[in-house]
Amino acid sequence: MKTKHPIIMIWSGAVLLAVLMASLVFVSVRADVAPPESPPGTNILPGSESTQVRMVSEVVTMTVLSQPASGSLGQAKTEARFEMRNLGSTPEKIEVRFPLTFFDGRDNGFGDYSEIMDIQIEVNGKKVSTRRIEAIYSAGGAGVTDRQVPWAAFDVTFPIEQNVSIVVRYTANGYGYEPYFALRYVLETGAGWNGTIGSADIIVKLPYEASQKNVLEGEGTGFSQTTPGAILAGNEIHWHFDELEPTNENNIEISLLQVSAWRKVMEETDNVKRKPVDGEAWGRLGKIYKEIVRQRAFRTDPGGLEMYDLSKQAYDQAVTLLPKDALWHYGYADLLWSHYNFNTYANPGQGFDELVKAADEIRKSLAIDPGNQDVLYLAGDIANMLPWAISETGNGYDYLVLTATPTSAPHAATETPVPEQKASPTSSSAPESTGTTRPTVCVGQACNDAETVVPTPATGQVKNPLCGGALLIVPFLAGLLWFLKRR
Questions:
Q1: Three-class secondary structure of residue 179 per DSSP
Q2: What local confidence, expressed as pLDDT, does residue 110 receive?
Q3: pLDDT for position 38
Q4: Residue 4 lies in a domain
Q5: What is the DSSP string of 314-335?
Q6: How far is CA 26 from the centre of its chain?
Q7: Which among 129, 253, 315, 371 would be 20 to 30 A from 212, CA to CA?
Q8: CA distances from 425 to 321, 368, 430 (A)
Q9: Cα 470 to Cα 450: distance, rounded to the nearest angstrom
Q10: Could you tell me the pLDDT band of residue 7, with boundaries at 50, 70 and 90?
Q11: What's the number of domains the chain is made of?
Q12: Average pLDDT over residues 233-246
């Protein structure tokens, strides 16, 4: 009936530390391998001889395909147009080269040297044939590899003081982890021509409007990071350079959301616009946003923060319209807990309201479907990591955090009442917390600045909550070990 919401552990610096600690007790953790890279497109370059030919201008257009080839994370049809001009006093006949694989001799990270297979070249509007050669890349002393690199080579005659147009077309393959992929274009090979590149424009065209939500700016995906200086306008991403003497710092990289993932966002957004009282559509929208923003680690760039808020809003609509649906309550709790879990390690003491709301959604979900394993796993994760928040009892769970008064001020342990939780249409049948005291929860720096005594709830099992650094690492390690064992 519904799509399940898998539990995803959010990894941060503290998480990695916990994994290292776990290895000391012989817990086997398999790390993700790096994604295989695809050979990037590059500027054309002359052979080893010096030349008086200058690259007057270039315009590179990468059009992201709506339907990439099967098995591909993303592809872009690429067209690079170069205007060349011989500034010397005699004509020059040059062997022009375009690298078919990694121009600097690297492999894709797995020992493979995949090649661009569909290259097409035009000179002054006429198709020319190419020959495959192998040569070591060495441009301006930038470094020499010990491996021969395959090139598409073709001869071009450059008359004196006349522009020669060269067009290179090929398919660029993206690489990365779902739901993201990266495209690259190498400008530094253009340094082999005379002087500077007069002007350079790199344009990426998307099959939808470009925004901070589908173009990652200022934050990496773990394998790539969009080159700074991009301008987003309409469906285009654009970089412009004047009088460029290219180095490897000028090479272009673009981190994008997969077309299929963004298409789902647009479809579900359209669904809720057409049917604003469809709780299922709101739930699906919240879920796809959640899957996008928390892959590998929660996105904290502006686009990621916006999608997290949109996911919360969508889930809130889903549980309001479908109050007796246990899965949407669970999905909402999963979102809130995973963000709180990630955020507290980066910003201790923040997001307590997320934890309270997550616990309440778990309570509502289990009241409707007490045997749902996904919800039970989620409750168990929190109980293992934060036993002062949710405590496992013989009859289920005691939601201590719903009656707790947190001390979340950064430098003082003053009590701040949590707003009273309003009953939802289904909460009349949900078991309430059986705690008879209001424990004081120590959060962040307050743990180190003042002694905080936590009364033991009547049915709780927790007497000494962990604070400060221990709160950030030791409970997480316990939760991680438990999570790995049950998986």
A1: coil
A2: 65
A3: 77
A4: no
A5: HHHHHHHH-TT-HHHHHHHHHH
A6: 30
A7: 315
A8: 10, 12, 10
A9: 16
A10: very low
A11: 1
A12: 97
This prediction has a pTM of 0.74
Q: What is the CA radius of gyration of the chain?
A: 28
Going by the DSSP 8-state scheme, the letter that residue 75 receives in this structure is: E
Provide the CATH number for the domain around residue 222.
Answer: 2.60.40.3680
Can you say how many angstroms the Cα of residue 142 is from the centroid of all Cα atoms in its chain?
32
- Paired sense of beta strands 252-257 and 180-186, if any: antiparallel
Q: pLDDT tens across 330-340, in order?
A: 999 999 999 99
**Inside any domain, residue 356:** no
Query: Token pair of 60, please?
Result: 């590179």
Instruction: Determine the distance from the C-alpha atom of residue 113 to the mean position of all C-alpha atoms in its chain, rounded to a whole number.
Output: 26
Query: Contact, 42 vs 99, CB < 8 A?
Result: yes
Could you tell me if 222 and 298 are in contact, meaning their C-beta atoms sit under 8 angstroms apart?
A: no
Q: Determine contact, residues 322/283, Cβ cutoff 8 Å.
A: yes
Range(s) of the domain holding residue 77: 41-257
- The b-or-e profile of 195-212 (16+ CB within 10 A means b, else e) is ebbbbbebbbbbeeebeb
Mean pLDDT of the chain: 78
Q: Report whether pLDDT(283) > 90.
A: yes
